[in-house]
Design brief:
Blueprint lengths: L2 E5 L1 H10 L6 H10 L4 E4 L10 H7 L6 E6 L3 H10 L3 E4 L19 H13 L3 E6 L3 H10 L3 E5 L1 H8 L7 H13 L2 E5 L7 H7 L3 E6 L1 H10 L1 H11 L2
Parallel strand pairs: 1-2, 1-8, 2-3, 3-4, 4-5, 5-6, 6-7, 7-8
Helix pairs in contact: 5-6, 6-8, 10-11
């Protein structure tokens, strides 16, 4: 069964819009785990427009499943991760002003940098994952950095699938097969939803974990968070 990690950034966005503490990010993390989620994901950005760096520290004692922290490994981010020591750190090459993640790493061009960063995290017993586009050359490049896993950037699949193009799954399946062959774990995330998650999971060999935030929170506005978490879990069996 593929694990479901719930990205709670949107809960922080809603909280920050009023300047208070409603909805409470810590309680929400507790609740999604109680409802069955097998992980909690956060993606703090330098401007702290949704998840704040303090949230990352405050979540540490309440996340008893897998704790996944995503982000660009600038110095502030690395220092935070090394202090918290989450289950997993997912390296994402997002720009400071990026609205959301919109590309994977060029693992070939950035090999030396990624290798250095990953070595530091692994010395501290933190599992590492690299956010990558569905390109076999980038998968091969990821292997050379020493990372434990890759996270396939799935926006392209999600968009094409919504247009009825089921063939869009093929490069993702090919990359997953290669990753399995060379000893890399496979995660995935970005624009996965109740509409497309079962098809994606059924066609990606060895899919270990999906990280889902925007769609899951949006769907929960209509269906309720407990119900939606369990709907995902059923589709990921």
């Amino acid at each position: 069964m593929t694990k479901l990690s719930v990205n709670i950034n949107k809960i922080a966005t809603l909280r920050n819009s009023r300047g208070g503490d409603v909805p409470n990010v810590i309680q929400f993390a507790k609740d999604v785990q109680r409802f069955g989620a097998e992980g909690v994901t956060i993606h703090p950005r330098p401007d702290e427009r949704h998840i704040r760096y303090q949230d990352a520290y405050d979540l540490k004692p309440v996340v008893h499943t897998e704790y996944n922290i995503e982000g660009n490994p600038i110095t502030k981010f690395m220092d935070m991760v090394l202090e918290i020591k989450p289950t997993q750190v997912t390296l994402v090459p997002d720009g400071i002003n990026a609205l959301t993640s919109n590309a994977g790493w060029d693992t070939i061009k950035n090999k030396d940098f990624l290798t250095e960063v990953i070595s530091e995290f692994k010395r501290n017993n933190i599992r590492t994952s690299i956010f990558v586009d569905p390109d076999t050359k980038q998968i091969e490049g990821a292997k050379l950095t020493g990372t434990d896993r890759i996270e396939l950037y799935t926006e392209g699949f999600a968009h094409q699938y919504s247009l009825g193009n089921n063939e869009a799954i093929k490069p993702y399946a090919t990359c997953a097969e290669l990753a399995n062959k060379i000893g890399l774990g496979v995660n995935a995330g970005h624009d996965l939803s109740l509409e497309n998650i079962k098809f994606f999971k059924d066609n990606i060999p060895g899919l270990l974990e999906v990280s889902i935030g925007h769609a899951l929170i949006s769907e929960s506005l209509y269906l309720g968070i407990e119900n939606v978490v369990n709907m995902y879990l059923n589709k990921l069996k």
